[in-house]
Amino acid sequence: MLLCIPTVKLFGFQQRRTIRSLAKRFNFNGQSPTESQAQASLDKECIDFLPWLEKIAGSKITNTLSIGKSVHGRALFASKVIHAGDCILKVPFNAQITPDELPPDIRVSLTDEVGNIGKLAALLMIEKKTGQNSRWVPYISRLPQPTEMHSTAFTQHLPNVIEGPALENFMYAYALVGSRAWETSKGISLIPFADFMNHNGLSASIVLSDEDKQLSEVTADRNYNLGDEVLIRYGEFSNATLMLDFGFTLPYNIHDEVQIHMDVPNDDPLRHMKLGLLQSHYTRSVKDISIFHSSCDTFTIKEVKSSKGKGKGLPQSLRAFARLLCCTSSQELNDLSKEAEQNDGRLARLPFKDERREFEAHKVILSHINRLIEDHSACIKEMEESKCYFVSQRFAVRRQMARDLLFGELRVLKSAAEWLNYYCTTLYSAP
Predict the structure, then answer these.
(1) SS3 of 383, please?
(2) Based on the number of CB atoms within 10 Å of its own CB, is 426 exposed (0-12), middle (13-18) or buried (19 or more)?
(3) pLDDT in tens, 279-294
């Protein structure tokens, strides 16, 4: 399954399968796989899929890829040797499904709040109800069933015109579309065949649209041998995003991150003044989730690669917020405001000149992170100690996703704590 690049967040419903190269599946003895071995992995249910799509497209889609089965479902495999830089598939726009195909009367009834993702979901429902008379039936019949989907997010952006039993069907269609939609010149599109490709967060291969040629294409970022699974990158997503939106996690995800929530305490005598300063001073773009907003602020920390490094991964906005929290007088706050006005307008971005005050501010962050470490560790321990018998496959998948999420976030939190400890030690040795 796929996600468009650049990434488009389609109301929280995006599902992807995990990455795994199946080269070993075709190379048990360390020798080059034969064509017969590669053919053994082919998805027999999809033998006629590519010819059908190429008939709709009126052109060749690929001569290097075949639809097969991996341990995570359908995938695309190299049917011949592929070299880095080779264009491995081309899907014309006329072989893609877009909201433009909605009947005019349905399109008018759907408000702008529904958005293209909702319109495409409505189209999918219509085509599914059409059954064998739908020209997209070979594609629709091969979409995942509800029991095969593990995304944990549910959207609130549902059209009011859909009620009762139809609502459940719409949510299923919404999840399907969100899990496979790409951003194109037409807004969003479902791209049959291309959405069988699985994800590798380290891959440089992405789906690109060529407006001049009126098609979407993928170029290989590395060499593939016969029988190798061909992978692309959906985006640089943490396990939290993958689990919530896509329905899978990675055992080790280099893009893991943790959201930190911090408040200006209600009993802080300078609370209103601090909130006023946060609201009056310059903040970053609304696309930056590390901005200040009201009394509860959210910051995203990434893994800090070195405890002795510059702390890349700890946002400056989080450190600034901690400095603000540590202020105990109106004079201190006024000084921070003047300092901001003399620089770029952002509050408390410079370290305190008093190293003791800088130490106290970072200790606030460290204390908060240590509590999160304790919470994550307790959850992991409870999960490992719990005994579950007669567990369904669906439950087992979600349990593993929870483990991957907790362990990934714990790794990030520990790296941040290690850096903060080192930073505080270099600033001031507490008695």
Answers:
(1) helix
(2) exposed
(3) 887 544 333 333 333 3
Convert the pLDDT of each residue in 33-84 to its tens digit: 444 444 446 778 888 999 999 999 999 999 999 999 887 778 999 999 999 9
State both tokens at 34: 């034969």
Q: 307 with 418: CB under 8 angstroms?
A: yes
Q: Give the distance from CA 224 to its chain's centroid.
A: 26
**Of 155-159, 213-217, 219-223, 422-426, minimum mean pLDDT range:** 155-159
* Dist. CA 155–CA 170, nearest whole Å: 11
Q: What is the spatial distance between Cα 362 and Cα 318, in angstroms, rounded to a whole number? A: 10
CB 67 within 8 A of CB 230: no
Please tell me the least confidently modeled range out of 155-169, 182-196, 229-243: 155-169
Name the nearest CA neighbour of 66 among 97, 33, 18.
33
Nearest C-alpha neighbor of 398 from the set 178, 199, 172, 244: 244
Interior angle at CA 74, CA 8 and CA 146, nearest 5: 70
Taking the mean position of all CA atoms in its chain, how far away is CA 303?
A: 17
- Beta-bridged to residue 229, according to DSSP, are 77
Higher pLDDT, 368 or 286: 368
- Dig out the tokens for 312 from the structure: 């890349």
**Sign (positive/negative) of CA torsion 379, 384, 387, 390?**
positive
Q: Give me the helices (H) in 269-392, please.
A: 271-280, 316-326, 330-342, 355-385
> What is the C-alpha to C-alpha distance for residues 24 and 21, in angstroms, rounded to an integer?
8
